[in-house]
Design goal:
The complex is a heterodimer of chains A (399) and B (254).
Chain A lengths: L1 E7 L2 E6 L11 E10 L1 H7 L10 E2 L4 E8 L13 E4 L2 E2 L5 H4 L13 H8 L5 E2 L16 E4 L7 E2 L6 H4 L5 H10 L8 E5 L3 H12 L4 E6 L2 H9 L3 E4 L6 H8 L7 E4 L10 H11 L8 H9 L5 E4 L12 H6 L3 E4 L4 H13 L11 E4 L3 H9 L8 E4 L9
Parallel strand pairs in A: 11-12, 11-14, 12-13, 14-15, 15-16, 17-18
Antiparallel strand pairs in A: 1-2, 1-4, 3-5, 3-9, 3-18, 5-6, 6-10, 7-8
Helix pairs in contact in A: 5-6, 5-12
Chain B lengths: L2 H10 L4 H23 L4 H17 L5 E9 L3 H9 L4 H4 L3 E8 L2 E7 L5 E12 L3 E6 L6 E10 L6 E10 L3 H11 L3 H17 L16 H9 L6 H16 L1
Antiparallel strand pairs in B: 1-7, 2-3, 3-4, 4-5, 5-6, 6-7
Helix pairs in contact in B: 1-2, 2-3
Classes of the chains: A alpha/beta (399), B alpha+beta (254).
The structure holds nicotinamide-adenine-dinucleotide and zinc ion (2 copies).
Chain lengths: 399, 254
């Protein structure tokens, strides 16, 4: 089959590799019909998360048709022929964490848990296509994928719903929703969201669903800011103002937003002094994440407010104003998304027509063009916001 | 367990302080290299394997007596975990170095471990303590290739949150060729081996199979990583798959 392989920093290539097969009784094999590139993939593309190996298959946002199921998969839950969206986290369903709905913290699905334990103390769940430290599972930017614990994750999609409406249930819609839920929104709240990428776009819409009266979104990319406004947010272009914090203060009458969300993560851009030292350390490969946005979130948040962090961090950060967090009595909420909590309820919202997630798609291209699209997406060229890949389209034909 | 108390115990067991320190220096060096590798961008895994190699050499030098201990909370009642472990013939499913355990009744059993170049080490064991759903201990008997002791405790976790399973093992390797084989089998950081064994036991109970990526597709690997994989193949025993199959069948039946 064809698959997008990580061949080194900023080197992606479409390779012909063997088809996946069932390796464990609870596995299924899925023929992929749609698969996406995520902001999280950019952290790997740019080489900021350790334990990738040359040849690893990328991708964690995919859906398709079940081709084969192992002997351990309950036929009542999943059958050959089902159309499914596959969540990016892999969960066993039976451990303490799964039973407490902390699906992305599953205790059993990371075969390389010991590596993650060295970095983090304990290991989160295995993820598709996201480093050996997080399980080393082959990803879904390919024509087929092996899905472990297939009786827990995949969500069956009723006939009649096109891929583009449901494929984002694999990650970014639930992620935006959980990020908004993590804001502890009370009726009438003001929520500030850093970043207007795909995750933030869903967070903006979810914040309104959860009762926010006002959402203020921050980015510098015009078409992304426009999309945020289309979703009902007010926006700040951080390159056009001296200080985002001052603008937020002014907009909220010196109170500050009730909650602040970092939907940017470890590759934040910025122009502060701390940003410059972050950048220098990353360049020198002293392993540090760039925490510019996290710092701003903590400083901007009102007293007693909540900081929600869906943006991905992999390791360590410097100069986090934890003193502000402590003295202002802030609450911090974060995590890889507990996918299985949100997929079904959000599917129901889509079925009821409350939201059509396809609004974020800017590019639909054949899988063969993935390598170039990684760059286009990272550099925000060609008004790129979200890329959906078709694994079966003819590579020669442009979209 | 802190490395300091371990060091003190090793010292008590006969190594001079200098030997002990040297061994720990190598072990920590290995560990630090592994962590260093993890925090670098490339070529992570190859460096990690080298770190593992250093740790391996550290563990197999010196005083001759090895100890390991591992503890995992498992989401099941003590009875389930005890029953699974008490059928000693199950042990090779999650203890990768074991080829087989044969029970002969009256608490006696024959164990076979398999090492590099198919060297086999055999020993006979007897159960020395057996408290149902609580504790099990065994040790090797005469006419064994080497001396070993093992035990496992099953303790109900607070708040009824499953069972804390704590396994311990000690062994004194024999001399000569068998000693080398034993060191290769158990010595590659015994604490690590034990932890991964108990982790697999937990997965088998909770997940009904052992997680793996062994056998999945990938694109072309770099020369250095292919070499590392050839020298240290991640081996997965066929019995791991069949254990999953068996548990699936049991689940369907119940
Ligand atoms: N928690 C989870 O489970 C989960 C799941 C998916 C993605 N993520 C993470 O969410 C983050 C966003 O993902 P995405 O797909 O939307 O990525 P993206 O790269 O498309 O979006 C990031 C946006 O942040 C903007 N930005 C950069 N610096 C900024 C700054 N200083 N202030 C304001 N905006 C700034 C960029 O212009 C860009 O539009 C990533 O870190 C991704 O890894 C987390
Ligand atoms: Zn994603
Ligand atoms: Zn689990």
């Amino acid at each position: 089959m064809k698959a997008v392989c990580w061949m080194g920093t900023e080197k992606m290539s479409v390779e012909t590799v063997p088809d996946p097969r069932i390796l464990n009784p609870r596995d299924a094999i899925v023929r992929i019909t749609s698969t996406c590139i995520c902001g999280s993939d950019l952290h790997l593309y740019d080489g900021y998360i350790p334990t990738m190996e040359q040849g690893d298959i990328m991708g964690h946002e995919f859906m398709g048709e079940v081709m084969e199921v192992g002997s351990g998969v309950d036929q009542g839950k999943l059958r050959v022929g089902d159309h499914v969206v596959v969540p990016f986290t892999i969960a066993c369903g039976n451990c303490f964490f799964c039973q407490n709905q902390l699906w992305s913290c599953c205790d059993n699905t990371n075969p390389n848990a010991w590596i993650a334990e060295k970095m983090m103390g304990y290991s989160p769940s295995g993820l598709f296509g996201y480093t050996h430290m997080m399980g080393g599972y082959a990803g879904g930017q390919a024509q087929y994928a092996r899905v472990p614990c297939a009786d827990v994750g995949p969500l069956k999609i009723p006939g009649g719903l096109p891929d583009e409406k449901v494929v984002f249930l694999s990650d970014i819609f639930p992620t935006g929703y959980m990020a908004a839920e993590n804001c502890n929104i009370q009726q009438g709240d003001t929520v500030a969201i850093w970043g207007c990428g795909p995750v933030a776009q869903f967070a903006i819409r979810s914040a309104f669903m959860l009762g926010a009266e006002r959402v203020i979104a921050i980015d510098r990319v015009p078409e992304r800011l426009q999309m945020a406004r289309d979703g009902g947010a007010e926006t700040i272009n951080f390159e056009e103002v001296d200080s985002v914090l001052d603008v937020l203060k002014d907009m909220t009458g010196n109170r500050g937003p009730d909650s602040c969300m970092d939907a940017v993560g470890m590759e934040a851009s910025g122009h502060s002094l701390f940003y410059a030292t972050d950048r220098a350390k990353q360049a020198l490969r002293i392993k540090m994440d760039r925490a510019e946005v996290l710092r701003q979130c903590i400083r901007a948040c009102r007293k007693g407010g909540t900081v929600s962090i869906p943006g991905v961090y992999a390791g360590f950060v410097d100069n986090v104003p934890i003193g502000g967090g402590m003295n202002k009595a802030l609450t911090f909420k974060t995590g890889q998304t507990h996918m299985m909590r949100y997929m079904r309820p959000l599917l129901e919202r889509i079925e009821r027509g409350e939201i059509d997630p396809s609004f974020v798609i800017s590019h639909r291209v054949p899988l063969d063009r993935a390598p170039e699209m990684y760059r286009v997406f990272r550099d925000k060229e060609d008004r790129c916001i979200k890329v959906v890949l078709d694994p079966w389209a003819d590579g020669a034909r442009a979209a | 367990m802190s490395s300091e108390s371990e060091m003190r115990r090793n010292a008590r067991d006969g190594g001079t302080q200098a030997q002990v320190l040297q061994r720990w220096g190598m072990l920590l060096g290995g560990g630090a290299l592994t962590v260093y590798a993890l925090t670098r961008r490339k070529p992570g895994i190859a460096l990690a394997a080298a770190g593992g190699l250093l740790a391996y050499r550290g563990a197999t030098m010196g005083t001759g007596k090895f100890r390991a201990r591992a503890s995992f909370a498992i989401n099941c009642p003590p009875e389930t975990a005890y029953r699974m472990w008490r059928m000693l013939e199950n042990l090779p499913i999650f203890m990768r170095h074991l080829e087989s355990v044969r029970e002969r009744g009256d608490g006696k059993s024959e164990w076979t471990a398999i090492g590099p170049l198919n060297t086999r080490i055999r020993w006979n064991a007897e159960i020395t303590e057996d408290r149902e759903n609580e504790f099990l201990a065994w040790r090797s008997t005469q006419n064994s290739d080497f001396q070993t002791w093992g035990s496992v405790e099953f303790r109900r976790a607070p708040g009824n949150r499953g069972t804390i399973v704590t396994a311990e093992m000690e062994y004194v390797p024999p001399g000569g060729v068998l000693g080398k084989a034993a060191a290769a089998i158990f010595g590659k950081d015994p604490e690590f081996t034990m932890r991964e064994d108990v982790r697999r036991f937990k997965a088998l109970i909770e997940m009904h199979e052992i997680p793996t990526t062994e056998g999945q597709p990938h694109g072309p690997r770099s020369a250095i990583i292919s070499t590392v994989h050839q020298i240290y193949p991640e081996h997965r025993k066929p019995s791991e798959y069949y254990a999953g199959e068996r548990m699936a069948a049991q689940r369907r039946a119940s």
